[in-house]
Design brief:
196 residues, mainly alpha, two-stranded antiparallel sheet, 6 helices
Amino acid sequence: MTTDGYPPPPQNPHLPDGPGYGAPQGGPYGFPGQGFGDRGFGDQGFGGRTPAGLLPRLGARMLDSLVVGLPMGLLTFVVALSTHSFVYDLLMSALTGAVAFGYWTYFESTRGTTPGKKLLGLSVVAPDGGRPTFEQAAKRNAFEALQILTGVPLLGWVADLIYLIVCIGIAVTIGQNPSRQGFHDVFAGGTRVVRS
């Protein structure tokens, strides 16, 4: 009998006794000192920092979209009042897409967070736990560049549809991935959004 009143677990006669043999040692999943949440995915994986869930990330994305969208919407409105032509529509959609892509890429690569993420206590980390490189930030936000095509007839609605599908795909993969990484994080080499 063991100290808790239960008989000891049976030993496999074909395996020697000792660490790593027989009954699992350590944490509840057989990994020394590690449970599901401690193996790099779950609640405390990334250097002690908790991965951010879908809702805070969505809130941060909406705040950042306002920061980008309001000035660009105002500029587009002013341009449309002064002159309305196909060329200016193309120019404004290209400018809006470039600004959106540049905004997220710049802030994540230079600060590790965007204003919206910072307001909600979130930051983006590279696979090594540091700040993402410019390339990693550009890859994880590449889908924002789809907005460049929104002013092109026929191609614009296809770009909008692809953008929507990508956003839904990111949300689904964040929800299903134990480390709360969207496929854009995986595409960027393993970036993560964590609580600061």
